[in-house]
Design brief:
Blueprint: H1 2-53, H2 58-61, H3 67-83, E1 90-95, E2 110-116, E3 119-126, E4 135-140
Antiparallel strand pairs: 1-2, 2-3, 3-4
């Protein structure tokens, strides 16, 4: 009878601890995965913007779902390059989408803000896990916080 009570007490204490440890491990794994994706996006977008600014063929470096989006995004990046030096480029990726996307809201997995000097450009990104298949879904002009 005494053994039965102590075994029950151990289970009552151990089960919540096991659940908390598994939950913590999942949270750490998820956080590391998201950090890795953000880094991949930042590196890819930085290379795309620098490439467009230096005159590389946009068709070979800007991956978009269609040619209309590719033309619009390339033109927006070129306008950013014309006003500021690409060497001062800052790229910041965050999870989520922007409300400015309207009916398309939610199709982007990340939002990237590209800043050079005092000018900024926002890019809607879709990253499904393959760093070679990062798509630029569109752009927007970020508003000041």
């Amino acid at each position: 009878m005494l053994d039965d009570r102590s075994a029950r007490r151990r289970r009552i204490i151990l089960m919540p601890l096991v659940v908390l440890m598994v939950g913590g491990a999942i949270a750490l794994w998820s956080s590391a995965r998201e950090t890795k994706r953000n880094r991949e996006i930042e590196q890819t977008i930085s290379a795309v913007v620098r490439g467009v600014c230096t005159g590389a063929d946009p068709a070979s470096i800007v991956k978009t779902p269609d040619s209309f989006t590719q033309t619009a995004v390339t033109a927006a990046i070129r306008r950013l390059c014309e006003t500021h030096d690409a060497s001062t480029l800052l790229v910041d990726a965050k999870s989520g989408d922007v409300q400015a996307a309207g009916s398309l809201e939610g199709s982007a997995t990340h939002v990237v803000t590209v800043t050079t000097g005092s000018a900024s450009l926002g890019l809607r990104i879709q990253h499904t896990g393959d760093p070679n298949a990062i798509l630029i879904l569109g752009y927007f002009v970020p508003t000041a916080p």
